[in-house]
Automatic annotation (TrEMBL):
This is Osmotically-inducible protein Y. One of its GO terms (cellular component) is periplasmic space. Keywords: Periplasm, Repeat, Signal. It comes from Bordetella genomosp. 7. Residues 1-24 form the signal peptide. Residues 39-107 form the BON domain. It comes from the Bacteria.
Length: 114
């Protein structure tokens, strides 16, 4: 289980780095400096890694986007508690100025109690 989380976190981090390069090469990139964009990418990576480390959340069900320190969470989870936990975890990350929580609840995704 720990190996799976590590692999997921590594894949998420790599995807953020590759997407950063793609945006940097794009002529119509956001009007952020390279430093601001890199900082936002780092915040996104930290939030996703925190989701991977949290046993109550599924990092694969929640998308994270950061723009000028404002983190937007989207996706679908099984319970309202997971929605609140995701926002709480994101707020605790250094560099996060604000969290916009657009996560939806789908009870069919709720995990069974063990």
């Amino acid at each position: 289980m720990r190996t799976r989380k590590l692999m997921t976190a590594t894949a998420l981090g790599a995807s953020v780095l590759f997407s950063a390069g793609a945006f940097a090469a794009d002529a119509e990139a956001p009007k952020q400096s390279v430093g601001e964009y890199a900082s936002d990418a780092m915040v996104t990576t930290k939030v996703k890694a925190a989701f991977v480390a949290d046993d109550t959340l599924s990092a694969l069900d929640i998308a994270v986007e950061t723009n000028d320190g404002v983190v937007t969470l989207t996706g679908t989870v099984g319970t309202e508690a997971e929605v609140e936990q995701a926002a709480r975890v994101a707020r605790d990350i250094e560099g996060v100025k604000q969290v916009s929580n657009d996560i939806k609840v789908d009870p069919s995704k709720a995990r069974k109690q063990q």
